[in-house]
Specification:
The protein is an alpha+beta fold and 592 residues long. It has 3 domains: 48-160, DNA ligase i, domain 1; 230-425, DNA ligase/mRNA capping enzyme (D-amino Acid Aminotransferase, Chain A, domain 1); 436-582, OB fold (Dihydrolipoamide Acetyltransferase, E2P). Strands 13, 14, 15, 16, 17, 18, 19 and 22 form an 8-stranded mixed sheet that branches. Helix 2 crosses helix 11 (169-181) and helix 8 packs antiparallel against helix 9 (132-145).
Length: 592
Amino acid sequence: MQFATLARYFEELEATTSRKALIQILARLFGEVSPAEIGEVVYLCQGRLVPFFQPLEIGMGEKLVAEGIGQAYGATREEVLRRFGKLGDLGLVAAELADSRISRLATEAGGLDVSEVYNCLYQIATATGSGTVERRLGLFAGLLARLDPISAKHLARIPLGRLRLGIGDPTILDAFSQAKAGDNSLRKPLERAYNETSDLGLIARTLWEGGLPAVEAIGIQVGKPIRPALAERLPSAEAIVAKLGRCAAEPKLDGFRCQVHKDGQEIRIFSRNLEDMTAMFPEIVASAQADVRARSAIFEGEAVAYNPESEEYRPFQETTRRRRKYQVEEMAQELPLKLFVFDVMYVDGQNLAPLPYVQRRKRLEEIIGPSEVLEVTPHILTDDVQALNAFFLDSVQKGLEGIVAKKPDSVYQAGARNFNWVKLKRAQASQLQDTVDCVILGYIYGRGKRAAFGAGALLVGVYDEENEEFATVTKIGTGLTDEEWREVRARCDEITVEQKPARVSSILVPSVWVEPKVVIEVLADEITRSPVHTAGRQNGEPGYALRFPRLVSFRGDDKRPEDATTVREIVEMYGQQAALRSKPGEGPDETG
């Protein structure tokens, strides 16, 4: 496939806001791609060269991309930056300059194919040693000089991670099915394989080369992160026992969810959002090497900063200080981590995910040896409401978030959120029983003092799983310090877009739209019905909104936007809130 053909599909995707249309466009694209190229095309659609969990970046920021554009088209750096200041998009700058100064190479070469462009970008990403910057610039400028304006526009965006195509992983999976079967009949097996490997390129290559039987043969693999199982929520111990009956309850810790992959002495640690965090946690690596009684294993737990002398769990804000690329050893001494392990999915060639929780738990206790860093999370098995509530209160007293209750016979269902696991979190000093993870969708310009920050209120949303989009749920104007307002603006400046993103559903129009990438934790007084917000809005009925929201923390370090609270959870929390109000002596004081 010619890269110019791929770029024109990118152009069509960028101009489309309908998810159904996006799927059909991708299906047409994939239908034209050979088995040899399909993996490369899929990664490029994600703005990547490899899966997200592989820490390979192209290594070119705005300044280098701008300099490469200048070299390609004979423009000065000042001219490129001047145009960038006007257009706000280096892709548009590249297209503009290519259109006005198309090089002889671009007109004579007859176009580059996808593999040539991919391989050149891979050379750029893997360049090392002296002269790396110059080599990257030369390769990148050489590529641009051989491309037409539309191709140059999208190539320039790839190193910056700003393709603006508006497609998510579920959309790509649906497009695979449409391309191969003409309908969505392949979606479930494709999704299962993806949830267990987190690698869309692998799924595509396997489907194109071996068909559905080859995809169904894909299983859990050490080194490829499994998309984590997620918990539903219920408002009380009574509700949990009524729903699950006899259950296993574990403390719910607030730290980094870590998935540890052990292959001999090679250890890799992945975050909840599939990022490789191995280098950040040397003590977990060392303990996994020394204290796990298995040659190969995949297990997961929650890493928290922990004081063994006082047996105190430190707050999440302190734990997040361990997320760094530099001075890792020094911070490990200052804030040692303990990994409380709660599940195991694979040991020495055996896939344990289909086994019941109680069997996985037994195997987990067998492989985790005595260790100062790794500890199997304590648990109880009970169907007694008082015992479960006592365990919950004990966890809260220790400063933890609450508990997670699990069905004893439940399998580990990768990537699924269901009632196999149920979380019960401590009640906040408000009528809403839990915090909500939201995604920033845009911001409104500030006035007065906030004019200096450039942002005075945030438009935020939650994830609509059914429609694979983000629906608005509130605006936030309080709860941020001056420094946090500056941080909001800095984060948003990197992901601003000119029009509403394809995956956003909103009636309100902010001053500036941003790509839905930044996750924040929000506390509110209650959930109300709202005609101006789209979360849960259907058939003419109003949506749902958070009342008096306050920002608690940024959670983008450990959560993907798709891991945010869902619309369905908001609706359920609204129902739970109404149920609490109906009980005598409970619920908000309506006279206040």
